[in-house]
Amino acid sequence: QVQLVESGGGFVGIGGRVRLSCVASEGAFSEFALAWFRQAPGKEREFVASWSYPTAKKFYADSLKGRFTTSTWNEKYTMYLQMNSLRPDDTAVYYCAASSHYHCTGYGCRDVDDYEHWGQGTQVTVGS
User: Fold this and answer.
1) Do residues 22 and 78 make contact, with C-beta atoms less than 8 angstroms apart?
2) First-to-last CA distance in the chain?
3) Burial of 42 by CB count in 10 Å (0-12 exposed, 13-18 middle, 19+ buried)?
4) What is the pLDDT of residues 18-70, one digit of tens each?
């Protein structure tokens, strides 16, 4: 059974930083493509970044490249999302997702429909 548990959200000041964590079940972490998505109020869920253990490739949404980075702690089956220089429009629920589709490990799938497994999400609110 695939499990994804996010944590680390909260209120952050404008220009601040926060690191989100996603703890995955062992199988998902070592075999699937993992990704971060976010959904702002009234908007569709959008791709943020992805990574996979089999290929070690990382992909980012073009608009977030340079401010957001992913990293992992493999022994803890944990993927992180470091978010810097936060702006009010980064306010959203951030989700961790996993895809069993092998091509996603090498090509960084960005479509919500490519991911079968989702965490419960963690709220990040950026304000003054």
Assistant:
1) yes
2) 40
3) exposed
4) 999 999 999 999 999 999 999 999 999 999 999 999 899 999 999 998 999 99
Question: 104: which 2 tokens?
Answer: 């996603």
Q: Which amino acid is at 85?
A: S
Confidence of residue 71 (pLDDT cuts 50, 70, 90): very high
* Residue 81: count of CB within 10 angstroms of its CB: 26
CA atoms of 40 and 20, how far apart (whole Å): 16
Q: What 3-state class would DSSP assign to 94?
A: strand
Q: In Å, how far from its chain's centre is CA 57?
A: 14
- Which amino acid is residue 81, in one-letter code? L
Contact 72, 112 (CB under 8 A): no
- With beta carbons less than 8 A apart as the criterion, state whether 106 and 55 touch: yes
| Angstrom distances, CA of residue 102 to CA of 41, 76, 79, 99, 107 | 31, 22, 19, 8, 9
